[in-house]
Records
---
Amino acid sequence: EAGVTQFPSHSVIEKGQTVTLRCDPISGHDNLYWYRRVMGKEIKFLLHFVKESKQDESGMPNNRFLAERTGGTYSTLKVQPAELEDSGVYFCASSQIQTGAYEQYFGPGTRLTVT
Amino acid sequence: AQKITQTQPGMFVQEKEAVTLDCTYDTSDPSYGLFWYKQPSSGEMIFLIYQGSYDQQNATEGRYSLNFQKARKSANLVISASQLGDSAMYFCAMRGLTSGSRLTFGEGTQLTVNP
């Protein structure tokens, strides 16, 4: 069974440009999460999809970030326009259920560098 | 609100010895889960072990065990018989089991196993 995959693995863009990150969850996982780790700090939650619906987007930092999950399969996270403080590693995770004792399976992350 | 504190930015251990990685937490959720993830240099986040707040026994998974002390709000990870491949970043995380499915992470501990 394939794990969570993310594309690209690394992106370097200039301030003001747009970047789109993609996440493919494990097949059959309705729950998809985005997290990010900025500047060696703790990993922070961004948002949670259940199928194509946003269950919780309270962690999104501002309106320059837009997440979508059309059709309830893969998800994209767009940053427009990118700022220097957006640099970090963006992780995607998925799970089959969302309550009780279960783990979230993480992808390898996308390292975003904004110059 | 939930908070995870990992006070050891870096730890060193000799191969074949045991090591304890500290984690303390704070939450108002009456029921919660505690997780440890490993992140090797390749970047992927690997789930290691889970402890539920009402579990009577400390969780164990092979060489990993979780020293859960509820009154002290601590969930330390113990790795026995360290191997060179254990060198990685280790993250402690928690999730309130009745208040949503987001994970809250600590800042991580970088473990180095010396030959």
Note: The first strand of chain B starts at residue 3 and ends at 5.
---
Amino acid sequence: SQQGEEDPQALSIQEGENATMNCSYKTSINNLQWYRQNSGRGLVHLILIRSNEREKHSGRLRVTLDTSKKSSSLLITASRAADTASYFCATPPDTLFGNEKLTFGTGTRLTIIP
Amino acid sequence: NAGVTQTPKFRVLKTGQSMTLLCAQDMNHEYMYWYRQDPGMGLRLIHYSVGEGTTAKGEVPDGYNVSRLKKQNFLLGLESAAPSQTSVYFCASTRRTATNEKLFFGSGTQLSVL
């Protein structure tokens, strides 16, 4: 069963606007990861936020984590056409060997309109 | 540095045929994974390996077998292919058992079973 669920399933915005997508999960975690998948390609790691962190930045990406609500958000600022992709959150369970079973959500399909 | 390489990239099988998907990584990673991706389902873990000579079942292991005879290679086998196994298959690897490690993905294998 899926641990993480992204919302919305699809999002279309104008180039230059900000894009926000959300991830909710069910069980306690030690970190949450976001990945991007371009059409026909494998997933690429974007950013990892640990359970004791509330916010993290990487370039135009901003990730927040609220462990009390079991949710995370990914914000992409000043979107570009190249940001068109599917975005997935992934969570290992809160165990010593958490990466043994990293589970992914169903993804948010982001389309940037030029 | 090739990273994670999957072969073949595309394959069409008839029901009942067998095949092996090869995943090779050149990063000396301990952990390797096989996922399948279906529309609306996200990525689901089939099997994984925590080191050379080890394998373990994931979320959807039925109909698949795996082997990790060499650290750099992880093979996924379909002994008797079924139409339900039509999917895109992704291999991934990560460095060690630490829980804050990102996954590196191959570019995928598109498999159609007729």
Note: The mean pLDDT of chain A is 90.
